[in-house]
Amino acid sequence: MRKFTFLIALLGGFIFTAQAQRVETTPQTSANVGLEPIKQGNWMVGGSVGNIGYSFEGDQFNINLNPRAGYFVTDGLAIGAQANLGFTAISGDDNVYNYGISPFVRYYFPGGASASSRFFGQGDIGIAGSRPGSDVSLALGANVGYAHFITQTVALEVMAGYNYSKANVNSGSGQTGLGVSVGFQIYLPGRR
Q1: Which CATH number fits domain 36-188: 2.40.160.20, 3.40.50.300, 2.60.40.10, 3.30.420.40?
Q2: Where would one find the signal peptide in this protein (predicted)?
């Protein structure tokens, strides 16, 4: 009986201690970062977790994953590269798997910004291919976006833009469309 009483007292002590250490917190939804994440010498890595678009010239729907990395050559201006991995469903035809790589330039606008968010513009040019088929294409993009910093180094982003792809550089056929993406970036400090 003594062991049972000791066990109940010990269990009660654990429950009381656990209740005494309960901490009520709210999730962090923004961070006042100023210009610190986009300073010269810093790095950014991340990408779009979903890029959804509809082509005007063909009845097709696509979704892409775009991991990217960039380096800030000056305050607010980053250059880098992104991979383009995607899936395209074409009405009445075979599905297409897309791939490619595109160097990009991203500029964070000083106007209209707050201590926890920034507007930016991004342009890219690269090459893209697809399977089935072996077309290699020229790919161009012009996007605008909004980055909201949830911590000192992580930002959630939304981008919208116009994209162009030419299946064969020597022919006049091309593909254009609008796209929207949601993603994130991690900003890493460089050496000072």
Answers
A1: 2.40.160.20
A2: 1-20
